[in-house]
Amino acid sequence: MQQTIVVKIGSSSLTSDEGGLNRDKIMFFAGELAALHRQGYSVLLVTSGAVAAGFRQLGYTSRPKLLHEKQASASVGQALLMQAYHEAFARHDVRVGQILLTRPDFSNRKRIHNALMTIDELLRRRIVPIINENDTVSVDELKFSENDTLSALVANLVRARRLLILTDTDGLYTADPRKHADATRIDRVLELSEDIFRVAGGSGSMVGTGGMRSKIEAARVAMRGGVPVFIGQVTEPGDLSDAVDGSGKGTYFDTDAHNLPMKKQWLGFHSEPQGFVAVDHGAEAALVTGGKSLLPAGVKEVRGEFHPGDVIEVTNTNGQTIGRGVVNYASWQLQAVAGMSTEEVQKRIEVIRIEVIHRDEWITLAEKHKVHDMTP
Ligand SMILES: Nc1ncnc2c1ncn2[C@@H]1O[C@H](COP(=O)(O)OP(=O)(O)O)[C@@H](O)[C@H]1O
Ligand SMILES: N[C@@H](CCC(=O)OP(=O)(O)O)C(=O)O
C-alpha cells in the first residue's frame, strides 16, 4: 500500500511580510514534494498563502484584518498561488489539483466522504492534491483562520503516515525563539502536557496567523487520530525527505493511539449532534464497557429534534456525556417508546432497526480521548 504524507506549508514560508508570493520558495518546496512523490509516497499539500499572496494587488499595504478584505485578497491570491504551484510542479512532471474545504464540510458526512473520494482518485492517478481553506465562503465564526487544524483533519481523513507542519522555525522551543535567544529546541514530544501548551506562543511574522500554539493544537488532533506529527523547517534540498525519515530539523510528536476506523473518526471529531438522550445505569454500562448497542428500554429522556441517520449525544443519569452515535429513530418516535421493551416497541411503531444506536455507529468519550487530552 502506498504511504500517504500530508505536508502543511504556512504563509510565513511562502510569502514576505510586505505580501506577494516568493516564487523561489514555491519552486523549492515543489522540488522537495516532487522528490517524495518520486520515492513513491502519496503526497498531499495543505498550503496557506492566499491572503498574503493577494492583498497587495487590492491596494492594501499590509495583511488586512477585516473578514471581507481577507476574503477578497484570498480570491485574488488563491489563483496566483495555484498558478505558481502548477508551474513549479510541472518542472518536475508532477500534476496538481486544487481542493478548497471549509470547517462545515468536515461535519457533513456526505460532503467529507465525497472530498475523500476525490482525493483518493487524484492520488490513484498520481496527482498531488493542493488543499486550502475556501476562504471566500468561510463564515467568520466557523473559519479555520490558520491552516494548521485543517491539515490535521486532512491527515486524519486520509490516515496519513505522518503530518509535516512546515514553518519558519526549526521546531518547538522552550520559549518563542524570536523573543528569547536562550530558548532551546524540544526534539521529541511523547505527551502533550500542559507545559507544552504553555511554551507555545503566537505568530512571529506579519503574515502568519496561528503561531506555535495552533500548531500544537493541530498536533493534538492528528495524534488523537493516530497520526504522528513533525513541526519544523525545510530549507535545504533533501530536508523534506529527512523530515519524513525521522531526522528532520524540527520537533517530532509521537502517538501510540491507533487510527480509529473512518466512521468512528467522523463521529468523534467531525459530526454535529442534533439531539440528546439520557440513558439509565444498565444502558450506560452496556455502551461504555459492554460493547453493546443502545436499546429503547435504556432510554430515560429525549431532547432535541432529530431524524434517523442524525448523530445524537448520549448522557448518563448525572448528565455527563458518555459518547455519541448515529440514531435509528426520529426524536418523536423515541419519545413515544423510551423505556419500553423491544417487544412493545415493535408492536407500536415501525423502525428499520430496533437499536436506538448500533454499537458499530457509536463512539465513547474515552475512545475519542485515547491520547492524553490536556486542555490548555
Ligand atoms: N515555543 C515556540 N517555539 C517556536 N516558535 C514559536 C514558539 N512560540 C511562538 N513561536 C512563533 O511561531 C511562529 C510560527 O508560526 P506562524 O507565524 O503562524 O507560521 P506559519 O505561517 O508557518 O503558520 C514562529 O516564527 C515563532 O516566532
Ligand atoms: N487560508 C488562509 C490561511 C491563513 C494563514 O495565514 O495561515 P497560516 O500561515 O497557516 O498561519 C490563506 O491561504 O491565506
UniProtKB/TrEMBL annotation:
Cross-referenced SMART domains: PUA (SM00359)
Q: Which UniProt keywords apply?
A: Amino-acid biosynthesis, ATP-binding, Cytoplasm, Kinase, Nucleotide-binding, Proline biosynthesis, Transferase
Q: What is its EC number?
A: 2.7.2.11
**Part of which pathway?**
Amino-acid biosynthesis; L-proline biosynthesis; L-glutamate 5-semialdehyde from L-glutamate: step 1/2
Q: Which residues form the PUA domain?
A: 275-358
The molecular function terms in GO held by this entry are: ATP binding; glutamate 5-kinase activity; RNA binding
Query: Key word ATP-binding present in the record?
Result: yes
Q: Which reaction does it catalyse?
A: L-glutamate + ATP = L-glutamyl 5-phosphate + ADP
Per the record, the domain of life is Bacteria
Listed InterPro entries? Asp/Glu/Uridylate_kinase, G5K_ProB, Glu_5kinase, Glu_5kinase/COase_Synthase, Glutamate_5-kinase_CS, PUA
Q: Where does ATP bind?
A: 8, 167-168, 209-215
Where in the cell is the protein located? Cytoplasm
Which leading EC class covers this enzyme?
transferase
**What is this protein called in UniProt?**
Glutamate 5-kinase
- Please tell me the species this chain comes from: Paenibacillus solanacearum
The gene designation is: proB
